[in-house]
Amino acid sequence: MKSALNFQDADAFYECLLDAHQGLEREQSELLNARLILVLANQLGDTALLKSCIAAARAGTPG
Amino acid sequence: MLETNTAQADRAAYADTAFSNGYEFTQGTGYVLPEYPFVAPPELASGEVRRYPIVIVGGGITGLSLACALAQLGVQALLLDEDNTVGVKGASSRGICYAQKTLEIFKRLGVYPRIARKGVQWSVGRTFAGSDEVYSFDLRQQQTHSLSEEPPFINIQQFYIEGFLVEQIQALNAARPCIDIRWNNRITGFEQNGELATLSITTPAGDYRLQAEHVIDCTGSRSPFRAWCKAPVTAKKGDDRWCIADVRFKDHPPVERHTWIEAPFNENRAVWQHLMADGVWRIDYQMAPNCDPEQVSREDVVRARLNAQFGRELADGECDIVWVGPYAYRSECLDELRHGRVFFVGDSAHVVSPFGARGGNSGVQDADNLAWKLAAVVQGRAGPALLDSYNQERHEAAQHNVLVTNRTARFLRPADGAERLFRTAALGLAKQHPFARQLVNTGRMSSPNTYSRSLVCDKTGGTATQNVSFRWADGQPGELIDLLCWADGRLLLLVFGELAPGVAKRLQTLTAQTGICCVQVAAPRQMPQALEHVVDHGGRLQATCGAEATGWTLIRPDSYVACRGGRIDGRLVRAISRALGLEGIAP
Fold this sequence. Notes:
The complex is a heterodimer of chains A (63) and B (587).
Chain A: H1 10-21, H2 26-44, H3 47-59
Chain B: H1 42-46, E1 50-57, H2 61-72, E2 77-80, E3 97-99, H3 100-109, H4 112-118, E4 120-121, E5 124-129, E6 132-138, E7 153-155, H5 158-175, E8 179-182, E9 186-192, E10 197-203, E11 206-217, H6 225-228, E12 233-249, E13 257-263, E14 269-275, E15 280-287, H7 293-296, H8 299-310, E16 319-334, E17 338-339, E18 342-344, E19 350-351, H9 360-378, H10 385-412, H11 418-430, H12 434-437, E20 469-472, E21 477-479, H13 480-487, E22 492-496, H14 503-514, E23 517-522, E24 533-535, H15 540-545, E25 552-555, E26 561-565, H16 570-579
Parallel strand pairs in B: 1-2, 1-11, 2-8, 5-13, 11-18, 22-23, 23-24
Antiparallel strand pairs in B: 3-7, 4-7, 5-6, 9-10, 10-11, 12-15, 12-16, 13-14, 14-15, 16-19, 17-18, 20-21, 20-24, 22-25, 25-26
Helix pairs in contact in B: 2-5, 2-9, 9-10
């Protein structure tokens, strides 16, 4: 898993992500996120890489 | 009049078979099952405690497959069944879907032609969410199914196969008596030491005991041997409830497997629609977790569901309800499939939810794995360590089946919250994007398992071959199964390509010394040097063996590859010993 910067334009991505959620109810937002995760995961494809990404995200989650 | 042992004169009447698996609420007109006569065992008159090398307990699809395989190999065995029929009395539905690997086994056992005639072939499956089709497949176009002579699947009621197996065993017995099937013989007690098991048996004519060197437990998911052997089980019970209806239609639906993840006609719960012999369709309805099993199986309730599904009132003559039964899915797997003299086979060893037809198919494949090993050991051709490989290989298979079916179960009954959210996301994406269709999990169909932990398989082996076609030396068509039947329980060595000078002679010596069978596989227009040779005219033998153009493949009687190699050398000699549990199997 890459921890170093890989975005071509991090600020633009972040803005684009927030814009996509604009005007959505909480449930709609959650569904958008879930769809996005599946779409992005398919771009990566690699099982070990996906596992380490999930582990990295989970490690920073309280509870 | 039944023979009565005086000491048993006042014993209670032989009890009817207890229902199991929640069959007590079953309804419908049912099937007419064959009945087999009870014959008083000779022990009742003699009082002798006889010793048998192999005793199979349970005459379901697993026990009968094992018995039939042993009969074919000329091995004596006793088979005890607690009632006098195949199927379960009053509840004769059970398995319906038989996968290619299993069909290949049935072909080897000699019952395949009858199954193919009676059953229904299918290869197209469609998956719906709401009224949209989200995914479909055609198994014929998938690589793993493309080489075999057998179709991807045949659907047929389980009891038909069991009946065919009984008759095949009887036919084999007529030529060479091997299998003593004892109907209405129920096990009531068990003990074992390192060498022998002692079984107590009750029959309508009295009780007796016998000793067994190998006990094969094929008694199913309520096996009493689990408790008798104190066998640890890893289990998981879900709250998912289903109701099966087997229905005969006058105008039947398409010959395809249909699954709905969210069926509008079933309160947005899942529905399965599958076909089998006699124009009967199995329709599985997912129920609410808190449903009343008796209520959901009532005939009028089932008819109301059918009317909702087909969008109109179905008259009596249009659809007959053959059988209805509720059940709950669970998964259980013994941690060890062998306990002393007892081998757990089929449902007694592992129970999975029915997604992908991995129950009956793995039971038959368990039986096929064990049969040739038992034969080789009792006939003195293999070492006792070969029998331990049954657990190594089939426990790995069972664990894999548990993993795969649990994943399906989780997709079909997601927990509230994130699990349901991701399913909604996957279903939504699947309608537009092909990649997401692979996430939609309505069951991954049973396919042959790979053995990576087996001490009798080399790391180049442990994979299943398919029943491919070739040409005999005289140009006639042949199949890999013909070669396996010719090998008659011995290992089969296929040597590909032209043989270097002196190799034919060396192979002759090797086969004479080790008792294996050897066949040269020539490419078209190649000159064979060996007496026994075939022509791989479509290249399928080489493909299914994964062999090099001039290499060898050592195939076991269960059609699995034990080892692959290049030159005829010491490695091949060691592979043969290892495959028979004779040496070189230290972990």
